[in-house]
Amino acid sequence: MKVRILFLFVIVWIFALPLQAQDVEIEVTFAQDITLLGLLPFQADTVFPNTLEIVYAVIYVDGLPEGDAFDIVWLFEGDELDSLTYTNDRVNDDDFRIYTYWANGLAVGEWTVEIIYNEEVITEANFEITDEAYIFPIRFGSNCTRDESILLNEGVSFEDITYLFAYVEYANFDDETVTVIWQDDDGAITTEGELEFVFDGEGKRCISYLDSVEFIRSGNYSVAFQNQDGDLYRTSHEVEISD
After folding, report:
1. Which residues are CB-neighbours of 106 under 8 A, at least 6 positions away?
2. Using one digit for the tens of pLDDT, what is the confidence trace for 130-147?
3. 80 close to 74: Cβ distance less than 8 angstroms
4. Taken in order 154, 157, 163, 167, is the CA torsion positive or negative?
5. pLDDT digit string, tens, across residues 150-184
């Protein structure tokens, strides 16, 4: 068996729910990694580079009665590769999170995880492995180490900061020029050609934004990465800065 469920995290309800029949709902999120506490997906996406050695599938389960089971099936380009069965053997717990992963070679193409319950496919989730230039989801922080290998003070909201750092991890680049465009509530802050970097192979770096005032002005900020033809590699989520 190539696939293993390594751990499960039970979500404890503060209030007891009345006993009643409920539908089973299962969702799957793919990620580069997961957290130790809570099994939260890290760098979740639906596309990953072929430089990765492992992809995680975080499975959120809601309403699975005690003693019931479901099958987890891994497929590549529609062909089944492996499967396993998970049985809910916990008392009075029908809402929880588990994970599985694939680490036996990630070929370029479409991958699928199916969840089969009562002999029916109730969930089908897909991700793609690509050999094209790829930028991982952007993370933000208010500081970074000098060698740009570690992001510090990471968050999605900040207060009274002088620098905002976008932490960029990339793969499958071939000595390509990448344009970085910072944006706020009013649109683009930096213009095309103002911030350019050469990405080659795999790597990571911190790219900073510094306002002309002592502290970065309040607002929502994001950053976009595009090639020289103006095609987007990745646009980040927004972060909020307050003073």
Report:
1. 48, 50, 52, 53, 54, 55, 129
2. 999 999 999 999 999 999
3. yes
4. positive
5. 999 999 999 999 999 999 999 999 999 999 999 99
